[in-house]
Write a structure and sequence with these properties.
about 5% strand; mainly alpha; single chain; about 65% helix; about 270 residues
């Protein structure tokens, strides 16, 4: 899609539209102006343009919606009224990680996760995830966050997302003392504890998650377990730490798999000629 002389990618159109809807609705419910989101998006887009202009061979006039999504995620995770330096640092670190933190030309970490983790650690802040705010309709709690399933579907990462949700729910029931403390209240608490932005958007990042279905299921379950373990040991920011640990393990696996294919190629070639 082109706007004037500028090219805008449409690969991430669904997640961008859904995140904008979540931010708009949650801002209305909470009665706030989401200036943190606006600043985060602006910082991410400008930082990506500058990196493409001076450190990459990509067309710097090409605006990737992935930078917009990164800004939307950052702005929706940090507190509703965040210090602007915190948001700026998160955005810069997030986009810089896409260009700097690579292994064999492969992006390792989810940009939003590493940007938020660095910023809230430096500024001694916290992650709030306020864009998943629920609202009441005739006494029933409703959230628009499950719409992010469409984002995971577009990225072809539904197996990873659903595996993560299933793993998180099972571990959540374990944490509530299942089956001893099993009740409708415990079910409700666990179901509403699912982080949809994490499960169907951040976990479904095409550049930091596997493509094959079996690998996606293992990846989703693995990240759920890592977050549970990090939280069990009372380590700060368990969601970001667990996801980034999963990213790192997958990067190790991806590089090892490439090396194995290189080693096995001569053997396969020789066997084919026999």
């Amino acid at each position: 899609m082109r706007v004037g002389n500028t090219t805008i990618s449409t690969v991430y159109l669904y997640p961008t539209a859904i995140m904008l809807l979540l931010v708009a609705v949650s801002s209305f419910i909470l009665g706030i102006f989401p200036y943190g989101v606006l600043v985060a998006v602006l910082v991410c887009v400008v930082t990506e343009i500058l990196f493409n202009r001076f450190f990459s061979h990509k067309n710097w006039k090409h605006i990737s919606l992935s930078a917009v999504i990164t800004g939307l995620i950052i702005g929706s995770i940090v507190p509703q009224n965040p210090p602007l330096p915190l948001v700026a640092v998160a955005g810069i670190v997030a986009i810089a990680s896409k260009f700097v933190l690579k292994w064999k030309h492969v992006q390792i970490f989810n940009p939003a996760a590493i940007g938020v983790l660095f910023a809230i650690a430096v500024f001694a802040s916290s992650d709030v995830w306020w864009a998943e705010t629920t609202y009441s309709i005739y006494g029933i709690a409703v959230s628009l966050a499950p719409l992010l399933i469409l984002a995971s579907w577009q990225a072809r990462r539904l197996p990873a997302s659903f595996a993560f949700v299933a793993g998180s729910l099972m571990l959540g029931f374990v944490g509530t003392g299942f089956p001893g403390a099993f009740s409708l209240a415990s079910i409700d608490a666990v179901m509403f504890s699912v982080n949809y932005i994490l499960a169907f958007l951040m976990l479904a990042d095409p550049k930091t998650s596997p493509q094959h279905t079996a690998h996606q299921v293992i990846y989703g379950l693995g990240v759920a377990m890592l977050i549970y373990l990090v939280s069990s040991y009372h380590i700060s920011y368990p969601i970001q730490v667990g996801l980034l640990a999963g990213n790192l393990l997958f990067a190790f696996y991806r590089v090892a798999l490439r090396k194995m294919r290189v080693w096995l190629h001569p053997i396969a070639t020789a066997a084919a000629t026999v």
